[in-house]
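Protocol step 6 of 9: fold each sequence in the batch and record its C-alpha cells directly after the sequence line. For illustration, a two-sequence batch is reproduced in full.

Sequence one:
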Amino acid sequence: MTARAPLQHNGTTILPYAGKTPKIHDSAFIAPGCRIIGDVEIGADVSIWYNCVIRADVNKVRIGARSNIQDGSVVHCDSPDEANPDGFPTIIGEDVLIGHMAMVHGCVLQDRAFVGLGSIVMSGATIESDGMLAAGAMLTGGKTIGPRQLWAGRPAKYMRDLNDQQLSHMQTGIAHYVENGHEHKRAVDAHSA
C-alpha cells in the first residue's frame, strides 16, 4: 500500500488533509472522477467506481480487500465530540458490495456486507457479515443488521433472513467487480499512457 501525494490525473483527485495522505494499494482501481481525501486506506483489489467521493477529513475511512464502492457513492465519517470521543470512523470490511449512489457515513460494514443502490447507512450503524440493506433503504444511527439478515424501507426494518443461494450470488458479484475493476484499470492506464 502506498501513500499517494496530491494527484490530479484522469479527473481523479487524491488529496492529503490535516497531515494524512490516502494510502491506496497498488492493485486497487480508482476510477476517473473520484475524490479521495485525508485519512483513507484502501486495500488490495478494491474498486472505487466513477465519481465517488471518499472524504476522511474529521475521522478515518478504511476499506478492506476486494470491496467495491460503485458509481456516484459518497463515503464520509463523523467527528469526535464530548458525547462520543472517538466519533464514528467508517470501517468497511473485506468483500463488501456498495451499490451505485449509496451514502455511507460513520458506520461499520463487516466482511461481505451489502449496501443496495441508493441506500443510506448513518453514523453509528452496523451491517454485520453477510447482512444486506436493500436498494433505497435507510439504516438509521445505532441500528444493526445481523448476519444473513435483509432489511428494507425508510427507516429500514428487518424483512427476512437470506438463504445460501442469495449469499452465493453476492459472492459472485464480488468476484465480478474485482475482475471488472482490473479491466477498467488496464483501460484507464492504457488511455493515459
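Sequence two, same batch, same settings:
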Amino acid sequence: MRLYEKPAHVLHDMLVNKEVTAVALTEDVLKRIDEVEGDVKAYLTITRDEALAQAKAVDEKIAKGETISFLEGIPGAIKDNICTKGIKTTCASKILENFVPPYDATAMTKIKAQNPVILGKVNMDEFAMGGSTENSAYHPTCNPWNTDCVPGGSSGGSAASVAAGTSIWALGSDTGGSIRQPASFCGVVGLKPTYGRVSRYGLVAYASSLDQIGPVTRDVTDCANILNIICGHDEMDSTSSEAEVPDFTKALVEDVKGLKIGLPKEYFVDGMDPEVEKTVRAAIEKYKELGAEIVDISLPHTKYAISAYYLIAPAEAATNLQRYDGVSYGERVESDDLVGMMTKTRTEKFGEEVKRRIVIGNYALSAGYYDAYYLKAMKVRTLVQQDYTEAFKKVDVIMAPTAPTPAFKIGEMISDPLQMYLQDACTVPLNLAGLPGMSIPCGYSASGMPIGLQIIGKALDEETIIRAAYTYEQSQNYHNEMAKLGGNN
C-alpha cells in the first residue's frame, strides 16, 4: 500500500512515530500526480518545489523533537477560488488567468499556520458556476473511478484529487452543493459547514449569501480535524458567526442509538436513479440496525428551491462579477473606447455559463422584474428555511441522497443547462437555509460509480452530523476503497 492511499490522521501518526518522513510522503504524492494527472486533470497549478521545501522544513522540526500539528507535513490541494498569496488564483476563468493574490484567504491563513504541504490549486467550474467541472476555461477534470465521467462540480478538482490520491485532503467551496455533489460522485467525504462557520474573506465571491468553504477528505476523521482548523469568527467577514467553535473530533463517536433521522419524501423524487434510491435506503436501514429511529417528514417547499436558487445566486453573481471589467480587475481586451473595451473583455474572457448566469441575474434584478422574480425568490427562501425549522423540532438530522444520479458521462448534460441545474435538487435547499450538510460514500452503482448519502443538520450542529457519519462509516469499508486508476492500487 502506497502512502497516498492513507488518510491524513494515519499519516500524521506515522510522521510523529518517525515511520515516514514528510519528504518521502510528499514525493509519493507527487509521483502519483505524475502517474495519473494526465488522465484526471485535477490541477490548474502545481507548486512542486514549494511543496518539497515545506516537507523538508517539517522533517527538520520533527528531527529536533518538536511536536507537530495535525496537518503538518500532509500534502493537500486548494480550490482555485480561494486566495493564495503568491500563487495564481484563476477561478478557472480566462479573465483571472494571471491573477496572483497579494494576500491569503482567512481559511488559507488558518491552514498555513498548521504548516501543511500545499501541492497547488485544483480545477473547478468557472467562478464555481456548474456541477461537472466542464465549465472550466482550461480543461474538464475527469472522475478517477471512470475517466469518461465527470467528477461533479464546482469543486470537482478538490474531490477528484482526493479520490485519485493526488492530494490527501483538499479545500472546496459550496454555494449550491459544490462540495457535497463532487464528494458523492468521487466516493469521498465532503462537508459544507453552517453559513458563517468559516470565513469567506478571500474566497472569490459567487453568491455571497450562499458561499461557504469546507473540507474534502478521505474519511470523516480527517473532515472533523480540518473543520477544527478552518472554523471560527473573523472580523474581516461581516457574515462570520461569533458562535463558539467546539472540538469536532469529540464527535467521532460510534453511537447513533436513539438518534432521530428524518426522511423527507420530497427528496426521493420521480426521475431519481433507482440505484441511488436503493443504495441510500439501504444505508438508512443500516442506521436502523445501529439503533437510530427513522421518522418520515415533509419539506413541502423543496420543489420551489431550485427555481428560487437560480434567481438568487445569479442575481448575487451578476452584482459580484461587475468588478471584472478590465479596469478594476481582470485581463483586458483592448478596444478604441472604454465601453468597447469592457464589452470585449467580458464577452471574450467569461465562459458561456458565467455569461448565462450574469444575464439571468441582471434580468431578475431589473426594475420591471425585481418584485416578480428576485423578491419572490427571497420569500420562497424563507419558506424553505421554515420547513427545516419545523422538521428539526421532530428529528436530530435529516438524510437523503446527495445527488439524484451517480456521475454522468462528460458531455452528456453540458448542452442542457436545465438538466444540469436539476442535479442540485437535493443540495441547494441547505444553502438557501444556511444549514450544514455532509456527503459520505454509501455504495456503488452497477457500473461501479460511487453513490453518496447526504446528512443534514441543524444550524451550528456539525457535531451531530459528524457523529452520525462516523458511526455509519465505521460499520462499512467505503472510506478505505479508492478508485482503481492507473493500476496502482
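Proceed to step 7 once all outputs are recorded. Observation for sequence two: The domain at 3-266+277-298+387-480 is CATH 3.90.1300.10 (Amidase signature (AS) enzymes).
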